[in-house]
Write a structure and sequence with these properties.
The complex is a heterodimer of chains A (552) and B (231). In chain A, 51% of the residues lie in helices and 17% in strands. With 552 residues, chain A is α+β, with helices and mostly antiparallel strands. Chain B contains 7 helices and 10 strands. The chains are: A alpha+beta (552), B alpha/beta (231). The complex binds adenosine-5'-triphosphate and magnesium ion (MG).
Amino acid sequence: MYAPLLANRYLTSRIIPFIAVAAVALCVALVIIVVSVMSGFLDMVRESGKTLIGDVVVSRDITGIPYYEELIRDIEALPEAEAASPIIETYGLLQMPYGTSDGGSSIETVQVWGIDPATLDRVTEYRGKLYWAKPTDEAARTMLPDDPRLDPMYQRQAEGFALATAEGQPGLVTGIEISPFNRRTTDGSYRTESPLGKQDAGFFLPNTSGATLTLVPVTDRGSLGGEKKRRFAIVNEFQSGVYQIDAQRVLAPIAVVQEMLRLDRAPIVSPDELDENGRPKVVGESPARATTIVVKAAAGVSPARLRDAVNACYSQFVDRKLGERGLRVLPPPMVSVATWEERLADLIGPVQKEREMMRILFSIVYVVCAALVLAIFWAIVQEKTRDIGILRAVGASRVGVLWIFLRYGLLIGVVGSMLGVLLAWGIVARLNDIHDLLGMPAATWLKVLAWVACAGGLALTVRGLVRASALHTVFWFFATVALVAIGVALTLHRGFLVWDPSVYYFSRIPTRIDLFTATTTMVGGIVFSVIGAAIPAARAADTDPVKSLRYE
Amino acid sequence: MTMLLAAEHVKKTYRLGKVAVPVLRDASMTVAEGEWVSIVGSSGSGKSTLLHLLGGLDRPDADSGPIRFNGADLRAFGPARQNHYRNRDVGFVFQFYHLLPELTVLENAMLPALVGLSRLRWLGERSALRDRTAELLKTCGLSHRLGHRPAELSGGERQRVAIARALINEPKVLLADEPTGNLDVRTGSGILDLLAERQAAGLTLVMVTHDESVAARAHRRVRIADGAVEH
Ligand SMILES: Nc1ncnc2c1ncn2[C@@H]1O[C@H](COP(=O)(O)OP(=O)(O)OP(=O)(O)O)[C@@H](O)[C@H]1O
Ligand SMILES: [Mg+2]
């Protein structure tokens, strides 16, 4: 019955348990924050890739996959697939609606995606990435009050989903970073500016007269056709969150791109025969083509399984087409079928490597924290060796003595770990605010406060000297030094951008607590607290009381 | 008549690295029930060592003779019996008090009683135990100090708490290691009076001292010299 009494007394009558709780909490918080932010970041890189191209990508070079509509029907009939959508991928030049300073137009090299918005939206989260759209209530809450997207007029103009203007003119959706007048601010949002530099005077890219896209068709023999130019209205912008994509890609209606690249349906004419009208005789039909088909897996189907199913599906498709009579164009025997991870290997590869690096670093952080917690408890219990000797001398059992310190370690471990999780959660949830705060020069009142605190610390140091108190003098001296350092840092601080969106792909720092990490770290915090307390306690409990009593 | 406590040709050697320090070479002594024996000897002669061995707080050498309590060899005790021996059969008063600093006087004194109680029995006997401990502390002259911490007590007061702790489970024998060694003569004799009172009431008392006047109050005196007991 002495175990609860002593465990409680050890906890309440000394300051060291509070230090131990703080240490455990800080260690747990440190691990959770580091792991959550880093793995959240890596997950975002990966997941953004997935939301951009679906689970599996079927692709071929610029000559395209003929009869792709039929292939898509076959794929969608697979139990493993949920939806599929055709895409044409190519490169082109985009003549922007604004000029350069010397009077010419500004021209951007862009990656062009001809898409079918309706089916693409079923495969990826295409619609959600359109920038000029009526924001969801949740998104609206996080927007600045002067965000143009909150204006109903802009919302009405946001017609990008149709990829065409109301008048039926083909439309273009450009990546948000393509226009230099969209400036990402330190908080990750965009400021839309007119070319005149006037802040947000109703100017945004979809409001302009439009842009001219130039594409160069390639024949299936590999030679270049004449370039095709076409004027598009810019109907919207999209924000995928991946900087490289937002700064390069434009989306156009697939039919228009097919036509410009001569990948649309066309008659095949004989080079020497003429028909009854004296025109070259039509001998067959060349089908429309897509260079890429993106496929979304059915619920619970892994991308790898879907890939294999699509591969098999394609072979069957080819066999069937070979069996059909009178076809002038046959599908290629092989296409590339890859999961999104394989497809984005160049993007994900380094991320994967970083993740492994991170694992090693996390392990080191974890081990260091565990060692720290162990050391703290070791020191605390070691100091109680004499008490353990006394307890054993009056007849306490080994188990009883051990139980005191198990309770002690358990309680500190549980309280510390829970505080640590709360602390980590608080910091991670506010990480973007903290980051934004770092991006700004310190507030004047804060600087004044810091310097006033410095003066106060100095005064207390002097008081300590006058009163000849070593403790007060030493404590306040170091406190003053720390305060001066803080004051200097605040005064010199001009604001810096730690998380540069153009470097990190993403505009926002991930703020999701990794549940697995939080749980394992919390459990780890408790386990190491208990081990740290139990081992020296067990050692002392095993020692003959006389020896423990001699411990000073 | 079997002796309450008996040491028969006991050997105890301390090892300091490679150096063996033989403290007790061949120590034999007996204590009869109800007796008051004092152990004297020069400093470093091994008085405390012998007392610790009698109290089961330390183990003799492997080739030592037995230490017997009521005829039973302490070395044959299992862990549970050993804990019981320390808790119930003997009370030990240390040369340097050895109180738990976080507990109050009352809690320190009732610690051995708490050790022997299960949680359930504690709930039932809590108030009775408190009363009994307070009563015992009163007879030790500490009724006004029950809620104090050891750090707030004088040396004599601490030694009284240690004696109360040794007596709380009403052991058969009290082993006291220089209970008056750090105290002035008046305080010391007060403590000796307390022990004498208990001894008169039937307690067996083994007391280490190097003070002849203290030793003189005992019925019998043994002297340790050269690792052996002279009678
Ligand atoms: N744990 C130990 N390790 C090594 N030597 C020890 C140990 N304990 C005791 N000794 C040695 O054993 C000898 C006897 O010690 P002990 O404490 O029994 O003497 P004592 O007779 O009680 O002396 P005092 O009157 O000063 O208390 C001393 O020389 C001491 O240095
Ligand atoms: Mg001694």
